[in-house]
Amino acid sequence: MKKLAPVLVLTSSILWGSMGIVTRYVASFGFTTAQTAAVRICSAAVVLVLLVFFTDKGKFKIQAGDVKWLLGTGIGSLFINNLTYAEMVQRAPLSVAVVLLYTAPFFVMVLSVLFFREKLTFRKVFALFLSFAGCILVVGLTGAEARSVGGETVLIGLCAGFGYSLYSIFGKVLVGKYESLTVTVYTFLIAAAATLLISRPAEMAEKVMGNLSAFPVIFLGSFVTVGLPYLIYSVALKHIESSRASIIASFEVVAASLFGVVLYGETLSGMNLAGILLVVTALTMLQVPAKAKGTDSENLQK
């Protein structure tokens, strides 16, 4: 399973990259940004609950002392990430929002060193900067766009990145004690409850009732693009360093761009293609076998 873990993370990133398809579909029914996030998270939560209910109800059992970690994944990560990212895309160009979101691997790397004593190697740091540079090129971020963003917006974007990073930290703690499905279902239930509080639920309910025929597709799409990738990522976290997983997950930006080309006829410039190449190079670097113990000159942390 350890060898398969990077493939699982890559699969999650591809599914996350397709999230825009469902987001556009949900938004087309008149849901606001916050309501769209709530519909996606709540829909995925419903499917996850049914999955646990019909496969193994025992997976609902958790220890009271672990609620704080689940609040970390549900509110600290999934809810905060969705809330701040939704705010970001209203304040700044999408390219800026995406780049600030993908400061997450930097946070994961620092937190992993502090809390999990992960080795900080030159290869890992170089791959991180390479993938981040690739993300900038893939989304086509220009100097003018970057300069147009105010300090408050940058702070919100960094909060989105930090929130995104917390799943790799809190999730790592939880998957050591519980099945991945248990961690994922409670993460989504907590996040769903939080998103409903800020999405004008009465108004949202009216829109849901007026578009019930669309909800089988929304439920399935939300699970495939939001719930399932978190579930797969949780499985992978049992067998891979959090920092490495976070860097590999940056392929989401590439996947989203490719979905845009295939489904919406979007085009890729030379800069975008160069960015894709950088991201793929970074991910390839992380798969090169490390040197044997005792001879690893890459270590930056003693």
Shape category: globular
Compute the separation of the termini in Å: 28 Å
The proportion of residues forming helix, as a percent range, comes to over 70%
Structural class: mainly alpha
Q: How is the main sheet built?
A: none
| Mean model confidence by pLDDT | 91
**What low-confidence regions span 5 or more consecutive residues with pLDDT below 50?**
292-297
β-strand number = 0
The number of helices is 15
What percent strand? Answer: under 5%
Radius of gyration equals: 19 Å
Explained architecture:
It is a single chain. The protein is an all-alpha fold. It is built from 15 helices and no strands.
Task: Describe the structure concisely for a colleague.
The protein has 15 helices and no strands. The radius of gyration is 19 Å and the shape is globular.
SSE topology sketch:
Layout: H1 5-17, H2 19-27, H3 33-55, H4 67-91, H5 94-101, H6 104-116, H7 122-138, H8 143-147, H9 151-175, H10 180-197, H11 201-210, H12 215-237, H13 242-248, H14 251-264, H15 270-287
Helix pairs in contact: 1-12, 1-14, 2-3, 2-12, 3-10, 3-12, 4-5, 4-9, 4-10, 5-9, 6-9, 6-13, 7-15, 9-13, 10-12
Task: Name the features.
mainly alpha, 302 residues, globular
